[in-house]
Design a protein that fits this description.
Elements: E1 14-18, H1 40-50, E2 55-58, H2 63-70, E3 77-79, E4 84-86, E5 93-94, H3 100-112, E6 118-121, E7 125-129, H4 137-148, E8 155-160, E9 163-168, H5 173-181, E10 190-195, H6 201-209, E11 213-217, E12 228-229, H7 232-246
Parallel strand pairs: 1-2, 1-10, 2-3, 10-11, 11-12
Antiparallel strand pairs: 3-4, 4-5, 6-7, 7-9, 8-9
């Protein structure tokens, strides 16, 4: 069956929203060890130009971390699940002050995590990675829930692939997509979101509401019956094909 993944006849009208870890790049054992494969930045550069700027990276990482991985690019996008927003390539990052609730939860999380768990304090969210200790997943999730409990009216936990992340209520990738779609060069285009994890579901919902396409990466059950790419390598090959089709 032919899907939008095979038909680029209307791709000139797309606005691309791309998750980073598990979508554009392979997931690393530790967040700071993630790297972009050779050639990825050039493909993204070409697509950004062909789509007249309507390409954004929407990640759970802070945008300065996204920029480090994709350098020299500083693409439009959102960091920390939408807490940070950059509307134009190389433009100013809108970064509000982290809420006090997140800081309180961070202190409790750091104090209670077992050895082997990696706590990543992003400022606006707290991610606890347990890829190195998967047998402690249940323990870690329970401890994160207890650390969050006193501030659950202001924050919530989002479970992803080997990670439990606490973030502020009312901030998500869907809101980031909506904010960018309201502005040029995204406005009036057909949004296409590529993501691999439950943390991307809000982004999927946002593009589907606007008549766009949600593309699942990997084996997650996030868009039943929707278009799917097998892994980040398949994503990179597809993006290169799209780049060539757009010329």
């Amino acid at each position: 069956m032919t899907t939008m993944l095979d038909d680029f006849s209307r791709a000139t009208d797309w606005a691309l929203f791309l998750d980073l870890d598990g979508t554009l790049i392979d997931i690393a054992a530790e967040p700071d060890k993630a790297r972009a494969p050779a050639g990825l930045a050039m493909v993204l550069e070409d697509l950004h130009r062909s789509l007249h700027g309507a390409l954004a990276v929407v990640s759970g990482r802070p945008l300065n971390d996204v920029d480090r991985i994709l350098r020299p690019l500083k693409l439009p996008g959102a960091g920390q699940h939408g807490a940070e927003l950059r509307r134009l390539r190389g433009g100013r990052v809108l970064r509000p002050r982290p809420p006090r609730a997140i800081r309180r939860v961070a202190e409790r999380v750091i104090a209670t995590m077992p050895e082997g768990a990696l706590v990543e304090d992003k400022g606006h969210s707290i991610a606890v990675h347990y890829r190195r200790v998967p047998h402690l997943a249940r323990t870690i999730r329970a401890r994160v829930a207890r650390a969050l409990a006193p501030d659950r009216r202001e924050a919530h936990v989002l479970h992803g692939k080997m990670v439990a992340e606490v973030k502020t209520n009312g901030v998500d990738k869907g809101q980031a997509v909506d904010a960018l779609m309201a502005l040029p060069p995204f406005r009036g285009r057909v949004p296409v979101f590529l993501g691999d994890d439950r943390t991307d579901e809000d982004g999927f919902a946002a593009v589907l509401r606007q008549g766009g396409h949600a593309v699942r990466v990997g084996d997650g059950p996030f868009v039943p019956g929707g278009p799917c790419l097998a892994d980040p390598d398949a994503v990179r090959r597809w993006l290169a094909t799209l780049r060539d089709a757009l010329g």
